[in-house]
Write a structure and sequence with these properties.
The complex is a heterodimer. By secondary structure, chain A is an all-beta fold. Chain A contains no helices and 11 strands. Helices cover 0% and strands 53% of the residues of chain A. In chain A, strands 2, 4, 5, 6, 9, 10 and 11 form a 7-stranded mixed sheet that branches. Chain B is an all-beta fold. Chain B is 0% helix and 56% strand. The N and C termini of chain B lie far apart (36 Å). The chains are: A mainly beta, B mainly beta.
């Protein structure tokens, strides 16, 4: 069974640009959540999607958005990039309809904003 | 304010030694999970604890959930270089069902 796949693995963008990251969950998993990981703040929850609906949202500005498609694949978008958005963005999928279960993480997308 | 405080932040010990790392909070969690993350990879789930006072063993790793479901510990016996990594605890916060992560303990086992 394939694991969670995130693309691209690495990305370099300029301030002010926008970026889209992609996540393919484990087959059969319907819940997808996104996290931002930085050395200073650790892992911070961005949002969770289930059946194409955002079910939960962290404390990030509106520049961070996401969506989920009917095949459970998810994308997150960051607009008007800032230097502080440089981070490892992790996607996790879960088999049930709640985060109250084990999360399986992808390898992440390392975003660098210059 | 960090809801889940992990200590120590960094730990470097010799192979064969025992160690304990902690995950503490003033809040109650419905469940708590421990993950290990290696450089360039996503976190990998080690264990989930649900019941207050629960103890789970995974080979040389022993996980305990506090009676009040506010804290947890991870004890490693006879540490090996392969145990090196960032250990993260994560809890489902009882107030709003959100998953909260601690900042982690970075463990380095010297051969």
């Amino acid at each position: 069974k394939a694991g969670v796949t995130q693309t691209p693995r690495y990305l370099i963008k300029t301030r002010g640009q926008q970026v889209t990251l992609s996540c393919s969950p484990i087959s059969g998993h319907r819940s997808v959540s996104w996290y931002q990981q930085t050395p200073g703040q650790g892992l911070q929850f961005l949002f969770e999607y289930f059946s194409e609906t955002q079910r939960n949202k962290g404390n990030f500005p509106g520049r961070f958005s996401g969506r989920q498609f009917s095949n459970s694949r998810s994308e997150m978008n960051v607009s008007t990039l800032e230097l502080g958005d440089s981070a490892l963005y992790l996607c996790a999928s879960s088999p049930l309809d709640s985060l109250n279960t084990e999360a399986f993480f992808g390898q992440g997308t390392r975003l660098t904003v210059v | 304010t960090q809801l889940l405080e992990q200590s120590p932040q960094f730990l470097s010990i010799q192979e064969g030694e025992n160690l304990t790392v902690y995950c503490n909070s003033s809040s109650v969690f419905s469940s708590l999970q421990w993950y290990r993350q290696e450089p360039g990879e996503g976190p990998v789930l080690l264990v989930t604890v649900v019941t207050g006072g629960e103890v789970k063993k995974l080979k040389r790793l022993t996980f305990q959930f506090g009676d009040a479901r506010k804290d947890s510990s991870l004890h490693i016996t006879a540490a090996q270089p392969g145990d090196t990594g960032l250990y993260l605890c994560a809890g489902e916060w009882i107030r709003d069902d959100k998953i909260i992560f601690g900042k982690g303990t970075r463990l380095h086992i010297l051969p």
